[in-house]
Amino acid sequence: MLFQDQGVKENVWLIIIFSALSIVSSYTGIKIEGGSINPLNQMIHSTINAEEAIANTRLIGVTIAGIFGGPLVGVSVGIIGALE
Asked: Could you tell me which residues come within 8 angstroms of residue 6 by beta carbon, excluding any fewer than 6 positions away?
């Protein structure tokens, strides 16, 4: 799959799958505050303080999409993930 040309149908499926992964990954994550790591209890992020951060894995879906599907799939998934 890495070095084969995919058709339009395969590229569309890759975009759908990895876009869904990116969207779900941006809503799930862990909250990092004061050196401690806590999982988020809800899907939608609530407000966070200036001392807190949320770590998620949205970029992994975009990166893997680019590796498996090429630049067109990777850029498409990145745009969908960013717009969401």
From this structure: 14, 69, 70
